[in-house]
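Example 3.
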Amino acid sequence: MNAKKKVIAMLLAGGQGSRLYALTQNVAKPAVPYGGKYRIIDFALSNCTNSGIDTVGVLTQYQPLVLNEYIGNGQPWDLDRMHGGVHVLSPFETKEGADWFQGTANAIYQNMRFIERYDPEYVIVLGGDHIYKMDYSKLVEYHEKNKSDGTIAVIDVPKEEASRFGIMTVDAENRVVRFTEKPKNPESTLASMGIYCFTWKKLKKYLIENENANTGSKDFGKDIIPAMLQNQERLFAYTFDGYWKDVGTLDSLWEANMDLLDPAAQLDLYDPKWKIYARHNNMPPQYIGENAQIENSMITEGSSISGKVDFSIIFSGVTIEEGAVVNYSILMPGTVVKAGAVVEYAIVGENCVVESGAKIGVSPEVIDNRDDWGIAVVGHNITVPNGAFVKPKEIIGKNEDIKKA
Amino acid sequence: MGVNNNVLGLIFASLHDSTVVELTKQRTMGSIMFGGRYRLIDFPLSNMVNSGITQVGVITKSNYGSLLDHLGTGREWDLARKKGGLHLLPPFSQNVGGEGVYRGRLEALNNIWSYVEHANCEYVVLSDCDYVCNINFEDVINKHIETGADITAVYGNYKYSEESGSCVDVLEMDKNGRILSVLIDPQLSGECKICLDMYVMKKDFLAKIVKEAASRNEYSLIRDCLQARAKEFVFMGYEFDGYFSRIDSVKSYYRANMALLKQENRTALFKADSPIYTKIGDNGPVKYGLESKASNSLIADGCIIEGTVENSILFRGVKVGKGSVVKNCVLMQGTTIGSDCSLTSVITDKNVTTEDGRVLTGSESYPVYIGKNAKL
């Protein structure tokens, strides 16, 4: 029997990220690179450790190899603990048979034994695909103060976007009175962030009931929250007003990276009190060449930049040769852009080679019909040959997808 | 890697402190910052680890707080081990009432001998921290075994110049590489073979010379052993033909950093298959602002550049304000340059801050050095 933990976190990292497919063919969405030197999951893991939560279960099932290796023993996030720490929880087989995780609630249900080992009062349930900095200890405080059974972190979204989210309607005390998944006519603008704090005893009861009811979805948003509301359990909304971005699509991934270059960016990666930790390669500092031109960009160690870079996020070990141009783009680790190549408004995956004379993406300003414009995307380990043109909105998942211009 | 489970690495972190007094005022030679994100001890330590050595003792002397902080448990070098791993060896005196401060390598080793004695090894690799290079000790050990030498000393070909610092040890060898004598700080010119302060020998042999030195009140490996006993024993030289630089003055420190702006030197020092490990800082990427300009510079993560940076080495977390121009500079970790400043040929130590509009000018042959935590 382990000693008791007051709070533990369960991180749902099983998502396939099918809308990011060019980047998630072999890795789970939370392992997708973000922000020059991070992976998406670093934000949730760093938030846990910075909030004083030292026990985290990471639930994986889609392509877990990279994620498993990346998380390892949790040391980069200070989650290598004698008691607790980070544990990667994959689907497993029991006497009754083996099951994949069927929904978010089912994934937690299947790992109840992990949770019970720590006998926690509260369990925080997190998604692994959001970029934000949040002090979960404040969420727990708020939950305790309200003697809440479940607290849902919410963010105020613009009215026109509200129908994309799960929307909470609250009373004057912030107690949730209604919850509607993607409403056509939203009656509130408080969107669920997919971050929950539950009193474990309560959650356990609802997880078991949901499992037995066999709804098919076995999902927090679709089943657990509605069931708790129906039984008039105390559910409260905790309003978060910092930066928060769902990076579920290629466009939103590109936007979330570009947000880092906004001088008014609310996401500060340089705050020594709330560092975002990541597993690092050992690479020398970046070298900026004699004739390089760099503005409004973020560049990570191990890179060698001799070309022109503007409004871009350059990951570690990237080479941009003299005469190459990179604008409004994201270049993931190890990619090489050769002299004369042009990359604009694009995401280029890990270890790609963009040959001289290749062109990826164009600026929206030179497109007549804005509906034809979108970012161009090249997946991992792809060579874009001389003369090739990856059009706006085009997604290259493998070498064979490239059409010669 | 069989043979190297059998090797103990010993690093002298504090020898040569007095050659760069400015930089070692608040730290040891081994913890001097170098190359944007490293400290000098990272080089011998990574070289040992990359050569398969899994037990390393670091011998300190004084001011080793920053060294302890840097090395921690040794995890970043993969030396946080149950068997072997990293051991920090603070000064320890064999003599009752002694100060624990030693005069040379042999005396230092005598003081910590119980550590060496209990290490499970047949061979010992010794290294100081004043040469920066990427060397494979496995090759040196193999050569040592092949020649049957008592000590194998690593040397490099060096060109004397007016700017050469003091205390260079020059090896004189016969055509087979056997060391005939050692010239300590000689007045020479032109090419010569200088000792890179790295040695391989059997532990038994080291025990013998350490104990004999102690009983004769001798302490210097070079003077009392390599120089004095070259006829009695077989001392061989091992030529290291890779890139190395020597830190023996503020000037040479500056030059060695600046040398990293040449691609061939970086390629020789930072190899993908034998990386130089260092403590992780968890800094964000380098952020280049509107109207920033950077050229021919080595810039470590966590820097925020709003001004102009040319021909410079910027360590982690350096900030260069709007309108400022930094040229031919080495700015150590946490240096913060305000707006509209001009720095030319300046070395700033850790956490130096300048107010807006400051102008500091040194020359490439005589860089200005600004001490740790200074506010200008």
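Residues 206 and 227 of chain A are 8 Å apart (CA to CA). The interface with chain B takes residues 35-37, 75-76, 263, 269-270, 275-278, 280, 282-301, 313-314 of chain A (CB under 8 Å).
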